[in-house]
Amino acid sequence: MADLTLKNARWLAPDGRFQDGTLVIREGVLRLSEPPHERAPVLDAAGMRVVPGAIDSHTHLREPGQEQKEGIERGTRAALAGGVTTVLDMPNNAPPIDSEERLAAKRKLFAQRSRVNYGLHVQAPYQGAGRGYASAKIYLARSSALPALGPGSLQEVFRAHRCVTVHAEDESGFLPASGFPGQPRSHHLQRPRAAVTSALAAVENALGSIPFKERPRLVLCHVSTAEELAWLEHVKSMGWDVWGETCPHYWRLTEDDYVRVGPQLKVNPPLRTQADVDALLSALAVGPIDFISTDHAPHLPQEKADEASAPSGIPGLEWYLPLVLELVESGRIGWSRFLELTSRNAARCFGLAGRGLIKEGMRADLALVSRRPGAPKPALITGAGYDPYPDAAFSWCVERTIVNGRIEGQAGEEVVT
Ligand code: DOR
Ligand code: ZN
Ligand code: ZN
Question: 139: CA distance to ligand 2 center in Å?
Answer without folding.
Answer: 7
